[in-house]
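Quarterly update from the structural biology core.
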Amino acid sequence: MENSKNYYLKEFQLYDGECFITFNIVSINFEKKTIEVAITNRGKISVIEYDLNQDKNGDFYFSYGCERTKIEINDFED
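Predicted structure, tokenized:
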């Protein structure tokens, strides 16, 4: 199984049509299939845990927001 320490504080930015939302991985647990991310959105920081899902290619992702935007773990960078 993948080492969760390799993902600590990796970052991803999502443009929502008005501004960028920044995600930083706080923790990830592949056994429990959960991810905890710090989300910076319009000056507010929230730490939220999401369920990790796996697509047919074996890539992990979680769904964000009302639109259930698919955010893939492989898209996070140092």
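The first strand starts at residue 11 and ends at 15.
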